[in-house]
Amino acid sequence: MLKIPSKAIRLKPFEEIVGELHELANTDGLTARIGNVSVILPREMEPELRPFIGSRIGILRTDIPKKEFLFRVLAGQKVAPMTAAQDLCEDEQISNCSEVI
User: Fold this and answer.
1) pTM above the 0.70 mark?
2) Cα separation of 12 and 86, whole Å?
C-alpha cells in the first residue's frame, strides 16, 4: 500500500523529479512514490509508468501543449542499458524518451 505523506507535490513547469519509482496509487489523481517523495501526476500516465516500478526514472513537467509530462528511464536499473546518446535524451525523436499527455 502506498504511504502518501501529508504533502504530496505537484510539479511546476520545468521541474523534474528523478529517483526509483517505488509505487503507484490512484487517489485524487495518480500518486507516484519516486525516491522518498510522493508526486501527483495525471491518471493517464499509469499504464506508461507501471512497467517501470523498481526502475530509476525521471519525470519532467513542461509547458508544451499535449506533452505536459515527459519521462525517461535511466540506465542501471531493471531495464536494458541505454547508450549515452539515448540516456541524454537530447533529441525529441529518441525512442526511449516517452511523451505522455
Assistant:
1) no
2) 25
16-29 residue pLDDT tens: 999 999 999 987 78
- Cell numbers linked to 77: 536499473
SS3 44: helix
- Please give the DSSP secondary-structure letter assigned to residue 48: H
Instruction: Please count the CA atoms within 13 angstroms of the CA of 91 that sit on its side-chain side.
Output: 6
Residue 38's CB is within 10 A of a number of other CB atoms, namely 21
Q: How many other C-beta atoms lie within 10 A of the C-beta of residue 60?
A: 19
HEC per residue, 82-101:
CCHHHHHCCCCCCCCCEEEC
In whole angstroms, what is the distance from residue 87 CA to residue 70 CA?
A: 14
